[in-house]
Design brief:
By secondary structure, the protein is α/β, with parallel strands linked by helices. Helices cover about 25% and strands about 30% of the residues. Strands 1, 2, 3, 4, 5, 6, 7, 8, 9, 10, 11, 12, 13 and 14 form a 14-stranded mixed beta sheet that branches. Helix 2 crosses helix 7. The longest helix is centred in the N-terminal third of the chain and has 20 residues. Bound molecules: flavin-adenine dinucleotide.
Length: about 325
């Protein structure tokens, strides 16, 4: 078997590893125009926390993606690989002064080891007039560590990496049995998918080793400690392609985070970054047979559109994508 995986972000890498797991004798190639720090995945804080609006084709499939993904990350966290893969446990609070709904999450309330209402005392842990809150314990996957770790694992298992911008599926010279499309926002052009929209985010990565707990406030305010830095955010700008830093966003993020935790004023800024979340109302995980310009048919499985929750859900949708690959290669294929 010969498989191609388009994209080397968190979705492409977890998919490529999943293909190698199910087809140990297959040749798997990752084809991408950007790697590591040049991907959206690298910008993410990496906390496992899907939004309640995150959606696959059905509620059951969405819950399965989330459950499978949590089990995948948690298994790494429990193993000796955890520090190499950049996976750890993290606890935190979601506070709101607007609505109790913001602090609830039906996807993870039963899945995470701890998800409970915050006590009156806990609501006073940060500055702000917090009326509602939840405390939870989850996982964090730091892409800065996970992307190179996964790439190394992939290469060691015989995988091949090619740097190429793919304008169209007809560009692929190699004869692949199936190609899995994990191009994130790139799929907008590659698949002419107008449903895929960027949601721009901007964050600070600061050095504040005294911050050990995550905090979310209203208006996209978050403070999320990782392995070496703490991510301060953020913003969610629908349909914005602006990859430049915006000084007004920087000022607003600092003000909101400093208000919650004034000690952050003492934190050294390591870097500031922008990322475009590849948002699609329904994340696309499905097979398609594509007719190429030379008349040949290429089997493609799409796996893109994870918005602000790609690190959270990558292993779950990748397992589903590989199941579709298997179906396409057997008589089970409905296509
Ligand atoms: C500020 C911010 C904070 C975030 N925080 C979190 C978080 O805490 N938790 C969480 O779960 N998620 C978070 N996210 C969301 C997460 O980063 C994304 O959902 C995830 O990175 C999407 O991964 P991806 O692999 O689909 O895309 P990418 O990482 O963008 O990878 C796409 C890959 O496809 C390649 N590619 C694209 N088009 C082509 C082409 N035509 N030819 C060749 N190669 C191509 C690219 O080079 C790249 O390798 C955050 C995002 C932002 C911006």
């Amino acid at each position: 078997m010969n498989f191609g995986v388009l994209g080397s972000g968190i979705i492409g890498l977890t998919t490529a590893l999943e293909l190698q797991k199910h087809y140990p004798n297959a040749q798997v190639s990752i084809i991408a125009d950007n790697f590591n720090e040049d991907t959206t995945s690298y910008v993410a804080a990496g906390i496992f926390r899907p939004s309640t609006s995150f959606m696959g084709p059905t509620v059951d499939i969405t819950q399965k993606w989330i459950t499978d993904a949590f089990n995948y990350w948690d298994e790494i966290r429990r193993s000796k690989e955890a520090p190499l893969a950049g996976v750890c446990q993290l606890s935190g609070y979601i506070f709101s002064s607007i609505s109790p709904k913001i602090t609830r999450n039906h996807f993870i309330e039963k899945l995470l080891p701890i998800y409970r209402q915050a006590t009156e005392e806990e609501l006073k842990l940060c500055h702000g007039d917090w009326k509602y809150g939840s405390f939870f314990t989850t996982c964090l996957t730091e892409s800065r560590l996970f992307l190179p770790y996964a790439t190394k694992k992939f290469l060691e298992a015989g995988g091949k990496v090619v740097r190429q911008h793919v304008h169209s599926f007809s560009d692929l010279n190699e004869k692949f049995d199936v190609v899995v499309n994990c191009t994130g926002l790139g799929a907008r052009e590659l698949c002419n998918d107008q449903q895929l929209v960027p949601i721009r985010g901007q964050v600070f990565k600061v050095r504040a080793p005294w911050i050990k707990t995550a905090f979310y406030g209203d208006y996209d305010t978050y403070i999320i400690p990782g392995f070496e830095t703490v991510t301060l955010g953020g913003c969610r700008q629908f349909d914005s392609y602006n990859m430049n830093l915006c000084k007004y966003d920087s000022m607003a993020i600092k003000e909101r985070c400093y208000e919650m935790l004034p000690s952050l004023k003492r934190a050294e800024v390591v870097r500031e970054c922008v990322g475009l979340r590849p948002h699609r109302a329904i994340v696309r995980v499905e097979g398609e047979k594509i007719k190429r310009t030379d008349g040949s048919i290429l089997k493609v499985v799409h796996n893109y559109g994870h918005g602000g929750y790609g690190v959270t859900t990558a292993p779950g949708t990748s397992q589903h994508a590989v199941q579709i690959v298997r179906d396409m290669l057997t008589s089970n294929s409905k296509l």
